[in-house]
Fold:
Amino acid sequence: MALHLNLLHEEILEQRQRQRDPLKLGLLALIGCGTLMFGYYSWNAYRTLEIRSRLGAIERSWSKMEPSVTAAQKKVAELQTLTKTVRSLDDYIADRFFWAPLLQKIAHCVAPNTQLTSLDGTLDEARGVSITIEGVAAGREPRAAAEDLRQMLSEQLGHDYSEVKVEFKSLEDLDTVVNLGGTHMPLARYNLAIAFKPGAQAKPTPTPAQNRNRRKRDSE
Amino acid sequence: MSQKLSKEQTKKLGLSIVGFIFLVYIYFTFFLGPLQRSRADMLKKIADRQSKLDTAQEELHKAAKLEQNAKDAMVRFNALRKVNAEGAPLAWFPPRIKTFFANEQIDKAVARLEGSSELKQEELSGWLRYNWVIDLPQTDYTTLGRAIADLENSEPLLLLTRLSIHAMPDQPQFQHVELAAANLIEKK
Structure:
């Protein structure tokens, strides 16, 4: 085995120690990390700048659009209010109670032997329509003539209105006799109170035949 | 090859670790942290603005559509406004009623204002309800019926709330009539 003499032993050791110097290694590691961190930071900064330019573009388009949007919102609010107002007015118009058809109906109910002397009607949103009719009826049986009028009114008004009530407030015979068609007939004075709700009476909903059959089958 | 570190080397190693920690601290606190915060803020702003833009686009679309749909409502509203004349109702309503009943062969018609009130509905806050009493001293039932029918048809914002017909004692073919009417009139 050949003898190997290392005469630079101390120098080599020193060089190795210098190479393994922790401060130097630490500094190298620090520089490496710093470079990586800088790179990462630069990448992030680039992305941030990109985002900033995107934000700027969006801000610009928003500032361009904002006045028109504000105007549009105002317009929408105005139009919605207007539409609601028109709907309410239309409802008001549609829900009105018309007196002319009622007067026509009453006129049709009055027979030649009955006479109206006064008619007072009031419309109340909650209670409906209430009418007081005063008049005189003539006939062999003047009370029966007045009752005919009451029944006729009840029947006729019941076609178009709901919860119709026609009642006598008073019905009294008079001493006066009138000549009707050449015949002398006694008179009766009546006072009728009419009450009803505008709007036709709700018709009962027919029971579906299917259900009835099913029930029958169930019972079987 | 485990070689024990000398005191000097341990000191240097400690110094390197402290330097590294300091660097990391500086990096995150003063560089990357603020950058990421500002980026997050900007992203939030972008999302906010984007949603606003989307909403704005929708609003514009909705406004255009609503404007198209509301054309009928606008026409109807203008028509209803035109039903009533300009100016104080007390100035134009009684003469209008007088002319109306004169055209219906009822010569004497007097309308007087009983009062006005606000409407309950919020949508009709721009309108007032004027209550009138219309006095017809002499008319007959058929003419009155026809006149009331025409009045109800020609005045859509007018509602008769009370009707009083009394036969005249000396002329039973004629009646004295009193009507109470409520008319919706836009506030000026």
